[in-house]
């Protein structure tokens, strides 16, 4: 929602919450900004707090996240050159402290962090389980792995290789992607879905089916229909409005979810 509706006249934080609620969203995500607390109460929305962390900063970052009463905390951990063994050691300490603080944390799969490749992701997961006897809860953003692996549709066979870790997850970032771009437009800006978006939706359908296959009832997923803005480079000037595309993505994601619920009799 950065620079919405325009850079010159950007909505206030309150207006962003209002617009998101009106568009059908159930929550918001962002940094540890205490101003969101009354707005979440006002609009009846959850908040997912995003932090980046390392061995030196994880305590302070979790304390900051605690101030916004988050439903979940999304963690981008360490750096691209952090060895998996070191990253796993950080996560062991971070996750233990988060549990004591009453915080639900998820390790995000993201480029330029310790989880920049699937090989690192699964090695960290194995090391964590070896140390603690537990599996990691990831926040899956498969757009990053798709680009790293230069894949072609259909995507599911290459991306859903560890269904147990997918089924354990309680947070997903649903950003449309293909094997060359970590973000692609959902529409042409004129109300028509792009062909690339339709290939992506096929993957979302398979991902949801995978998750539901392991569901036992009572679980809650926080799913972010994600479109990055032009600042930061996710959105390009040639794209249609990313906020409007995010609204389309939210609706289509919910449709697929409901279809999968019926299919699985959930």
Description:
The chain is α/β, with parallel strands linked by helices. The protein has one domain (21-264): TIM Barrel, CATH 3.20.20. It is 45% helix and 12% strand. It has helices at 13-22, 36-43, 58-66, 84-101, 118-132, 142-149, 156-159, 163-168, 195-213, 242-264, and strands spanning 27-30, 46-53, 72-77, 105-108, 138-140, 171-174, 222-225. The chain has a 7-stranded parallel β-sheet. It is globular.
Widest sheet, order of strands: 1-2-3-4-5-6-7
In the CATH hierarchy, what is the class?
Alpha Beta
- Quick one: overall form? globular
Helix run count: 10
Amount of beta strand: 5-15%
Q: Supply the number of structural domains.
A: 1
Query: Which consecutive residue ranges, at least 5 long each, have pLDDT under 50?
Result: none
Architecture (CATH level 2) name: Alpha-Beta Barrel
* Terminal residue distance: 33 Å
The name CATH uses for the topology is: TIM Barrel
Q: What string, H for helix and E for strand, traces the elements in order?
A: HEHEHEHEHEHHHEHEH
Q: Which class do the helix and strand fractions yield? A: alpha/beta
What is the number of strand segments? 7
- The CATH H-level superfamily is Divalent-metal-dependent TIM barrel enzymes
Mean pLDDT across every amino acid position: 96
The helicity comes to 40-55%
């Amino acid at each position: 929602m950065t620079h919405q509706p325009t850079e010159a006249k950007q909505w206030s934080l309150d207006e962003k919450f209002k617009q998101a609620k009106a568009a059908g969203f159930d929550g918001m995500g962002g940094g540890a900004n205490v101003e969101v607390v009354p707005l979440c109460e006002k609009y009846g929305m959850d908040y997912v707090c995003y932090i980046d962390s390392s061995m030196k900063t994880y305590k302070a970052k979790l304390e900051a996240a605690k101030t916004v009463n988050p439903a979940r905390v999304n963690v981008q951990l360490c750096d691209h050159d952090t060895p998996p063994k070191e990253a796993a050691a950080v996560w062991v300490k971070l996750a233990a402290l988060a549990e004591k603080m009453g915080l639900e944390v998820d390790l995000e799969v993201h480029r330029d962090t310790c989880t920049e490749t699937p090989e690192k992701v699964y090695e960290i997961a194995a090391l964590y389980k070896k140390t603690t006897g537990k599996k990691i809860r990831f926040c899956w953003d498969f757009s990053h792995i798709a680009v790293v692996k230069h894949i072609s549709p259909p995507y599911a066979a290459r991306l859903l290789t560890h269904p147990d870790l997918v089924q354990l997850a309680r947070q997903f970032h649903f950003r449309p992607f293909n094997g060359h771009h970590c973000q692609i437009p959902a529409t042409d800006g004129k109300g028509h879905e792009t062909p690339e978006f339709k290939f992506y939706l096929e993957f979302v359908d398979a991902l949801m089916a995978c998750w539901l296959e392991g569901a036992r009832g009572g679980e809650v997923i926080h799913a972010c229909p994600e479109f990055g803005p032009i600042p930061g480079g996710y959105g390009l000037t040639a794209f249609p409005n990313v906020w409007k595309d995010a609204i389309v993505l939210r609706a289509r994601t919910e449709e697929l979810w409901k279809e999968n619920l019926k299919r699985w009799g959930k």
